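Report of the visiting student (M.T.), summer placement. My assignment was to run the structure pipeline on a short list of targets and document each run. The first record concerns SDR family oxidoreductase.
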Amino acid sequence: MDMKLEGKSVLVTASSKGLGKAIATEFAREGAYVLISSRDEDALKEAAEAIKRETENSHVDYQVCDMKDGKQITELVEKAAGSTGGIDVLINNAGGPPAGRFMDMEDNDWYHAFELNLLSFVRTIRATVPYMQKEGEGRIVNVASSSIKQSLDNLVLSNTLRPGIPGLSKTLAQELSEDQILINTVGPGTIETDRMIELNRFTADQQGIPLDELKTEAEEGIPMKRYGRPEEFAKAVVFLASGANTYITGQSLIVDGGLVKAL
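After the run finished, the structure tokens were exported:
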């Protein structure tokens, strides 16, 4: 299948590691011009070089950006547009909020999670849409969590704020369809990343069991009996953000090996 991504301008946020890096790698593999971002410049440099080596695509650049800073987001989008004169694809991604129960969280935790996991998406889309409107088309994929379909234990911040993302995507699918801008949400289930290891460690400590034991139990609960791989998640994102997708918009997809039971 021709993804029609050769030479396209792609911005992937929070992409120095984990799912963001895996997504950026798949776009680079398809021949796109890819801009990655995170707050850690050293990690970005390392990630950009690694993606170039793996994909043999030299058109991979980076910019430091704190996704809670509106000015930095605007500058990031401007740089992404600068490489080709526009932005064809936006992948919104952000680090997950801290684990914890409702009574563990103070006001600052809620403000931080709102800025990082919802407002940053609003800001990035708002800055990007004019470039897509000028081109007459575009693709946006918002990376969320399986908590958009089914709540997760000890993740009250994610359970509360992440569901706002498909609400935003559904609304924008209606508003932007006349501009041929397709926007969808993709939520990871149990994908083997540093974030998942961190959450598992939190849960294992709470339950007083070894980390390996927790992982074995978790895998038994997944119909496919294993954690997903970042590249498996990335391929789903890339399809929805590609020229091969011409009619899917406003939808929410969970990539989870069948774990989530909600419809």
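The mean pLDDT is 96. The chain has nine helices and seven strands. I thank the supervising group for their guidance throughout the placement.
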